[in-house]
Amino acid sequence: MSDNRLSRAAAAGLAATMLVTAGLPAFAQDFKGKTLVVGTWGGDIERLLRQNAAEPLEKETGAKVEFVLGGSGDRMARIYAEKANPTMDVAFVNIYEAPQALKDGMVEAPDPEAPYFKDVWDGMNNGCYAMSLVGLGIAYNKKLVSTPPEWADMWKPEFKGKIALSSYPGSEGDGVLGVAARLAGKDEHDPDAAFGKLKELTPIAMTYTNLDEIFAMMDAGEVAMAPMISGYVLAALKTHPDIGFSFPKEPGPVLVRDMLCLVKNSPEPELAKKFVALALGVKNQTDYAEQLYFGPTNKNVKLSPEVSADVIDTPDEVKGLLQLDWPYVISQRSDWTQRWNKEILGQ
Amino acid sequence: MPPSILLLLPALALSAVVFLAPFLWLASTSFRTQAEGSLLLADGLSLDNYIRLFADPFFVEVLLRTLAYSVVTTAVSLVVALPVARFIVVRAGRFKGILLALMLVPLVSGALLPSLGMLHLMGPLGVVNGASRLMGLPTVKLLGTPAGILIGLVQSFLPLMVLPLVNTLARLPNDLEQAAASLGAPAAAVWRRVILPLAMPGVVAGSVLVFCATFTSFVTPQILGQGHIATFGTVAYQQAGQVLDWPFASALAMVALAMIGLLQAAITVGSRFARRREARQ
């Protein structure tokens, strides 16, 4: 072998190596050893996010996705406490927490230029990205309540002491106050009207904290109706033939949203954006609708008629929803919690 | 520096980081406030949280209610624990280890599991009321009532009373009661004048533990109270986890801590006083 041939072989080998290296997708290298931290609710939500967002992201980028599970209050406390040095990249919070977090500079404002921003229904990305749409309606015992009830039916004398409410503060409680105020001819900006009307429902049959508990009481006939957020409830109702769920008309169901936030100055902003795109993507949103009955925020999701019937997924349905002035409601949280403790639960 | 302090340093450093620093942070947060329309802590210190706590009859009522639950839970635990502890010490023989291990189960399983278990026992469709229904007896409302919470609290914290009592009772010489009995003391007098006074250190230790655990408990009143009954723990949770008013929640925690500190101080003074009186007699 002559020197010339040797060097030519070496050059070819070198070129081949360079080609192979260059041919590898660059991003697979960029994120190796990086970890994206996502704070969300446990259970089905975590399962779907893991399957539709975390696993594809890990495969694509070589990064790891770590979930921190808990309530949204935990996550709010964490991102506020860590504002100087955040460790969480993506946080799922409630409709009423997102605008607050944006106002206080804890999260990135939604980027109107991002493709995933444009896929979401117009006007929904308040504070953070809108993740899913659910409505506060009424779960009811079909044996005690013959037709799907309207809000006003909860105030009928025959159901006195048979109405259950969720714990307060929370979207359910705020929603019920908004509805009560409207039945009294006012809206949530008149808390006296709201609490005065809601107080007529006392004594409350029970304060429910989980679905099994409230459904058992409903099946036993101890609870006739309870305002509940669609979604899980509708999924769970498939095993409770005697319990129905009504989306009332006057006023309509109270809109509640899960929001998806990018934490400001988080360690992995690029990974976080990729995660958001997957979470808001058609596959994940379709699974949310089909398995959890959470309405998609992504306009491109097409649902079968059976699924569509149980979720909020059309512009018309969204228009029929009652939207509360959440920033105002949040500013009243502390006072309303006291009033709820005293006037609704007080013995 | 003496070597003993050197050996202590790792532990001291760890305590400073995981206990002292968060505690100081909590204490300082309790003097902060959130600006109007914001969750961020505003600059400057104030007593607003404490003023609100003691000026609002709701929180004062919650404080008194929590104190009452603590006293009742302590008293009931003591009455239940004394015979149990005595049985373990005197009669259990080789089953003593097993019984003590069983006593420990609720302590090591955390507050959540036993409370969820109690939920199924006491619920309107639970074991107790289900059995009553089957037998045609009237049902009792336990969930969401003080009685339900107290049952849960006693169940949760009974071991904290039993263990110190077992400890003290086991150190009493067996022949003391026999001596008292042989001198003509009836059983009740033996308990009142011999066993109880000698078991006092255990009674005090157990009572302090149960009282403090009850006063700061959160899971049991939250679950068994069904949101109907506010205690210090549930209100602090509501403020920290749901209202997101962290400064006010911190103030609630500081007050709970102060109550426990006061109790500790009262007991120290009380026992010193008792010892002095004993010495004089």
UniProtKB/TrEMBL annotation, chain A:
UniProt keyword list: Periplasm, Signal
Keyword Membrane (UniProt): no
Classification via InterPro entries: SBP
A biological-process GO annotation: thiamine transport
GO cellular component, one term: outer membrane-bounded periplasmic space
GO MF annotation list: thiamine binding; thiamine pyrophosphate binding
A Pfam short name: SBP_bac_8
Leader peptide range in chain numbering: 1-28
Protein name: ABC transporter substrate-binding protein
Native organism: Pleomorphomonas carboxyditropha
UniProtKB/TrEMBL annotation, chain B:
Spans traversing the lipid bilayer: 66-85, 97-122, 142-166, 194-218, 248-270
Keyword Glycosyltransferase: no
Main location: membrane
Record-linked PROSITE patterns: ABC_TM1
Membrane topology: Multi-pass membrane protein
The ABC transmembrane type-1 domain, residue ranges: 63-267
Family: Belongs to the binding-protein-dependent transport system permease family. CysTW subfamily.
InterPro entries (alphabetical): MetI-like, MetI-like_sf
Protein name from the UniProt record: ABC transmembrane type-1 domain-containing protein
Organism encoding this protein: Pleomorphomonas carboxyditropha
Biological process per Gene Ontology, one example term: transmembrane transport
Sorted UniProt keywords: Cell membrane, Membrane, Transmembrane, Transmembrane helix, Transport
Location within or outside the cell: Cell membrane
Gene Ontology, cellular component aspect: plasma membrane
Xref: PANTHER family: INNER MEMBRANE ABC TRANSPORTER PERMEASE PROTEIN YDCU-RELATED, INNER MEMBRANE ABC TRANSPORTER PERMEASE PROTEIN YDCU-RELATED-RELATED
